[in-house]
Amino acid sequence: MALLRAAFSSLLFSSALALVQDLDDTFKDSRMEDVWLVDFYAPWCGYCKKLEPIWQEVGAELTRSGSPVRVGKMDGTAYSGVASEFGVRGYPTIKLLKGELAYNYKGPRTKDDIIEFANRVAGPAVRSLPSRQMFEHVLKRHSVLFLYVGGESPLKEKYTEVASELIVCTYFFSASEDVLPESVALHELPSVVVFKDGTYFTYDEYEDGSLSSWVNRERFQSYLPIDGFTLYELGETGKLVAIAVTDERDPTERSSRLKGLIQRVATEHRDQFNRDFQFGHMEGNDYINSLIMGEVSVPSIIILNTSNEQYFVPAEPVEDLEQLLRFFSSVLDGSAPAFGGDGFFQRIKRVAYDARSTIMSVFRSSPLLGCFLFGLPLGVISLMCYGICMAESDDDTELMKRDGFTDEEEEEGEEEEQQRLTAGAEGEEDEDAEKIEQKSPTEKKVD
Ligand SMILES: *[C@@H]1O[C@H](CO)[C@@H](O)[C@H](O)[C@H]1NC(C)=O
Fold first, then answer.
1. 389 catalytic, yes or no?
2. Residue limits of the Thioredoxin domain (predicted)?
3. 414: domain range?
4. For FRET with 3, which of 64, 131, 188, 442 sits at 20 to 30 Å CA-CA?
């Protein structure tokens, strides 16, 4: 019986191994025939350990669903040559490798998100929609849908080129005109259209610039609920992010009024502001507060520039649409004052702020540990100071008493003692710095 169980578990074990392959440096030469989804990890990295069980599930699921994508993992520290060739700069790094192309995965590290990514990127860059039913089905499932309409053309070539690069962000479809419902009236063919926000917009080469920059700007709904993760995704469009900071339980209904106002700017004043702004609301002010190292009131409006970490707030609370529109225009024409930023002093402030919030959070979650962690170095430092002071006063008296010692010998001994003590104290401090670094919000952002 025991034997049977052992045999069974070893069978399970070996099949689990087959689902996620451990890769070594021979991988580079043998990978070309297949599409590979690879987790580059480091044995010491905590996020990698958290990803490990999810990665096994990803491997199992992709195999089960008959996906052609093969799943592997590589210790980037053991095969650093291969890792750096694939441009791995941190751990864990998830990449989908498809022939000459390598796609980075930047989304949340959950099984479903990773599998969706793998299926999207491994498939064709442009998926064709053969029928009206198919179009309607896909339209229901995608809040933002890019569609090329027409036959072969230079625009289609361009579209395919853009799609094969930006497939990491979104899906791309193509169809002939008769697939579209009558409500969609295109001025000319071929066209590239995006369906979103309950309507559609057509790409115009003269007004919208390059197709890839247009796709990058249009790949989100104009108004979205925003959290820490989506904020940075939205920021990658190069737009400013305008947020209503709200409280669901706000009894005065000012929260929902502000949400409504921002939504109206997004839809009714799209022509004026869509190019430069992404709109949304965020529940609660915790995230924003730690981002700007200050305090925004709830509810309120804030505009963030995620590329230089500057932000804008209206001079007085926004009451109506006119006021809000004036605020948006003042940010665009540069007359609104910018706060924050990523300058030298802001960075110093960030380090101090992060250190403070780490200490606070340690104390809040376990005061005893906090006392130990931060009390111990403090204790050592004060003991050290005490020791130095006492040593000096001892000196004076002892020098007077004894004459067998020379001054030099005394000083040398003292210096050594001091060095030993400082070295000890420095060791302690370094340890703390490491802990602080591990918890800093910049890492959370990356995560
Ligand atoms: C946002 O930051 C970028 C990068 O520093 C800058 O070029 C741009 O002008 C900023 N936008 C506004 C409205 O300040």
1. no
2. 8-123
3. 366-418
4. 64
